[in-house]
Write a structure and sequence with these properties.
This protein is an alpha/beta fold and 214 residues long. It has 6 helices and 5 strands. Helix 1 crosses helix 2, helix 1 runs antiparallel to helix 3 and helix 4 crosses helix 5.
Length: 214
């Protein structure tokens, strides 16, 4: 991982910066630079690209210049990494459990087959996974459903959140009600029902997955 690599480089460069007598230098293993003397220039090959390597060197120079404690730096990097991971987890859609999927399937089985198209906003974390899970349930109950597709969205202001559903004018209102309730129960939040935006195809349903509501 990059934090481990950064820590190794920090200690390696910090050690090289300390005054020490020159002498033989040996290196063993990958990513183990050998250096002797002061103010030398040497190259480290650790499987990172040039841009990443240059960024790491700038970081190391700042650490040495400002005499930052490497242990405190690594602790802060770990803290930032955990914060980013938590933010992504809160923004993304959870994976439905086998029990939730079974309940959704049981709710839809009594209904007459309906054609359902699932779309995802390709910028939303875990939306594709949720779309695949819904698609799997629809196919199990015998509903015609094309593979989930991506929708490239542009927003004027705040992006939409939640799951939106539209349908054609001849689709059974009772079936829509059951479908909406079943998916809402599985997700733990209500769907956005777009009654005023019917599809041009009278007997189809369209479900679009946007950002998870916070």
């Amino acid at each position: 991982m990059i934090p481990v690599l950064a820590l190794s480089l920090l200690f390696a460069v910090a050690a090289a910066a300390q005054p020490s007598p020159t002498g033989p230098a040996t290196a063993k293993g990958a990513c183990s630079p050998a250096n002797t003397g002061n103010n030398n220039t040497f190259q480290i090959n650790c499987g990172v690209g040039q841009e990443q390597g240059e960024a790491l060197l700038r970081l190391l120079n700042q650490v040495l210049e400002k005499q930052i404690d490497p242990a405190q730096l690594m602790a802060k990097l770990d803290e930032i990494h955990n914060d980013v991971r938590n933010i992504k987890a809160n923004q993304g859609w959870p994976e439905l459990t086998s029990k939730q999927l079974a309940q959704l399937e049981a709710s839809l089985k009594p209904l007459a087959p309906m054609t359902v198209k699932v779309l995802v906003d390709n910028a939303v974390p875990d939306s594709s996974r949720l779309a695949r899970q819904l698609f799997s349930v629809f196919t199990k109950v015998g509903w015609p459903a094309p593979a989930p597709g991506n929708q490239v969205s542009t927003y004027n202001g705040e992006p939409p959140s939640g799951v939106f559903i539209r349908w054609g004018q001849t689709t059974s209102p009772k079936s829509i009600e059951v479908l909406v309730d079943a998916i809402s129960t599985a997700l733990g939040e209500k769907l956005w029902v777009m009654k005023d935006q019917p599809l041009t195809s009278d007997d189809s349903i369209e479900i679009t997955i946007y950002w998870k509501a916070r």
